[in-house]
């Protein structure tokens, strides 16, 4: 019996080591998946917040120019997050229609950081000169994702 146990002990150690390593691999896979989910959530929150800020800033600029939209502009955004630099670079494109049935195209291309939204906001209304807002005030990743998005013209 002692001989059987002595032969079995190394096998049990190897099996235990394999199971432990498999568990570590699975744990790492769970950590990696959680990281990917967190990154996707951050990207989605940033895109949604940036879209809301651009929509708000554009609506404000149009109102200042005496132009009203039928409804909020329909916007799409595309951003790449740089977690190390805490920035997001990309663009927001919106389309809408004025109460006079004129087409409106809104674009923002730039970088969102913890302190600012850098890049121009351009609004083109059919048959009018473009409206260009050089910077979006009160706009940053921290403010946008934190829930206090406010876009305004400069």
What do these coordinates show?
- The protein is built from two helices and five strands; from the N terminus they run H-E-E-E-E-E-H.
- The chain has 154 residues and is an alpha+beta fold.
- It has one domain.
- It has a five-stranded antiparallel beta sheet, covered by helices on one side.
- Strand 2 and strand 3 form a beta hairpin.
- The longest helix has 63 residues.
- It is elongated and about 65 Å long.
- It starts with a helix and ends in an 8-residue tail after the last helix.
Question: TL;DR?
Answer:
By secondary structure, this protein is of the alpha+beta class.
**Average residue-wise pLDDT:** 76
Q: Give the ordered list of helices and strands.
A: HEEEEEH
Strand order of the largest sheet: 1-2-3-4-5
Gap from first CA to last CA:
87 Å
Q: What kind of assembly state do the chains in view correspond to? A: single chain
Tell me the total number of β-strands: 5
Strand content: 25-35%
Radius of gyration equals 26 Å
**Number of helical segments with 4 or more residues:** 2
Major sheet:
5 strands, antiparallel
- Helix percent reads 40-55%
Low-pLDDT segments, ≥5 res: 1-5, 148-154
Structural class: alpha+beta
